[in-house]
Amino acid sequence: MEGDKAASGGGGLVLLNCFVSPFGNRVRIALKRKGLPYEEQPQNLADKSPLLLSSNPVHAKVPVLLVGGKSVCESLVILEFIDDAFSGEGEPLLPAAPCARSHARFWASYVDTKLPECAARVWRSPKGAAAVVEEGKKDLVAVLKTLEAELGAKPYFAGDALGYVDVALVPFAPWFLTYEKFGGFSVAAECPALAAWAARCARENECVAQSLPEPEHVFQFVCGMRKMFGLD
Ligand SMILES: N[C@@H](CCC(=O)N[C@@H](CS)C(=O)NCC(=O)O)C(=O)O
Predict the structure, then answer these.
(1) Ligand 1 within 6 A of 171 CB?
(2) Which ligand 1 atom lies nearest to the CA of residue 78?
(3) 149 φ, ψ to 5°?
(4) Which domain, by its residues, includes 142?
(5) Which of 11, 65, 100, 162 has its CB 3.0 to 4.6 Å from that of 72, i.e. a possible disulfide?
(6) Is residue 91 in a domain?
(7) For the GST N-terminal domain, which residue ranges apply (predicted)?
(8) Does 201 lie in the same domain as 114?
(9) Segment 66-107, tens digit of pLDDT
């Protein structure tokens, strides 16, 4: 890809993002962790910009990483791109061994296929759809417990330091408050080790602490979005 030249020079990186997007915030974490300079262009997803539509014409979603003007789309693809294009800068997110790489990709894919879908039933259901919310909460707690079991006694999914699965999952942590408020449960009570892991990620990694929104801001944003969609 032509963009690799610009990428390996470290210049010309532009992130199209929305501050609450767990997917976009994965990319923030990865860029900050590598110490790469980039410009962030916040996107209004209710009124998509021509730049977003032209740089991600298939999905029209954030995040998009523009690399010397070329676009890289899909957050997990972007994380791998950053690992590949900037392999000289710091530790990679994915481990080198093929089995360990596959294992990490499996769990990141588990997060993507399971978590957002259950969570959306909790926070995005119309007021009054109590049975849908309840079922979503049950499924969401089961997903979080599965992730907690995979974490086990390790400080990070990757072992002793932040890795690919940690970066894939931790941007959902600021959403926990929103899930709790709409679902009527407590993540810390259901999954204490996972809650402690999320706090550890932010406490021990500046790249995480600097990349994630305040949980209350996410909640306010979601309340505004629900109003806009006529869900309340
Ligand atoms: N699989 C995508 C998901 C990206 C995604 O769902 N982005 C949301 C924001 S959190 C979005 O742009 N939504 C706009 C829309 O659905 O129209 C990724 O990992 O990048």
Answers:
(1) no
(2) 20
(3) -65, -40
(4) 98-228
(5) 65
(6) no
(7) 11-90
(8) yes
(9) 999 899 999 999 999 999 999 988 889 999 999 999 999 999
